[in-house]
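Shipment paperwork, digital attachment
Item: protein structure file
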Amino acid sequence: MAIMRKLQSCGCAVLLLLFSGCAVLPGNPDLPQRSDLFQLSNDAQLAYEAGEDAKAEQLYMALLRKTPNDPEIWFRLGNLYARAHRPDAAADAYQRVLSINNTEHRAWYNLGIVRLRQGWAAMMQAYGHSAPGTPVNTESERMIGHLERMPGLPAVNKNEAAAKK
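Attachment content:
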């Protein structure tokens, strides 16, 4: 009889432990469910591909609130900003990718392209706002000549820059 009571007590204790463990199994309600993140990511990508930049940005930002250290989301956001001619924001997003994973070659490449375009724009401004024959005008024109030969940069129209003077 004493053995039977001990077995029943142990059985109850085991059941209590199992049931209390089940209450913990569903997980932390603060953590997003995988399917929610997948859907949000899919919606963001579809908005990006459809050219709905404002919607895509909102969705990517929502994703980042849930998973702030996901380099792929930062990379996609950088691409969105680059496409929207927001080079500073694009560079910041690519820098964020690299702070998470400094071997991400795509982010290094895209950051390089963004910085080249920023350099090109700065040289165009220097050329357009400097007097002909001055050292800045001459040197910026020389730099523009080098940059003109690089693929991926906008076509250079020095007459437009000169007209801004």
